[in-house]
Design brief:
52% helix; 5 helices; 127 residues; three-stranded mixed beta sheet; 3 strands; mainly alpha
């Protein structure tokens, strides 16, 4: 469970940086891949980033994305809009954690991160 939660916390940190740097806010997160099979992770991710996490009908979108790109190149589809119209959601996880609990979890994550500061010493002997 700790590894799953750490994954969600790390993604939260990345999205926080993106939101800050871009000046925009994430409205939802579309996910794919093997980790989407874990409901605990997907719900925790939604709770930590405070936006819905959306799983498409086709959960392995890397391969289908390559197929779509190839199809565009040979005019199987005329536009990106043609492809977008084929996308549909399979499942959505919505934030459900109480804000005070979320804040407590995030505070614990940030404290845990500080424990790793200075972990590697500067004068490490290499083989």
């Amino acid at each position: 469970r700790a590894a799953l939660e750490a994954t969600a916390y790390q993604a939260m940190d990345v999205f926080d940086a993106i939101n800050k740097d871009s000046g925009t806010t994430l409205k939802s997160l579309k996910v794919d891949g093997g980790m989407t099979a874990n409901n605990l992770l997907m719900q925790f991710q939604s709770d930590m980033i405070s936006v819905p996490v959306v799983l498409p009908q086709v959960s392995e979108t890397t391969a289908i994305g390559a197929a779509f790109a190839a199809g565009l190149a040979v005019n199987v589809w005329q536009s990106v809009e043609d492809i977008k119209s084929m996308w549909s959601a399979n499942k959505t996880w919505k934030p459900s954690m109480e804000p005070k609990n979320r804040a407590c979890y995030i505070k614990g994550w940030k404290k845990a991160i500080t424990k790793s500061f200075g972990w590697v010493e500067e004068n490490v002997v290499e083989d």
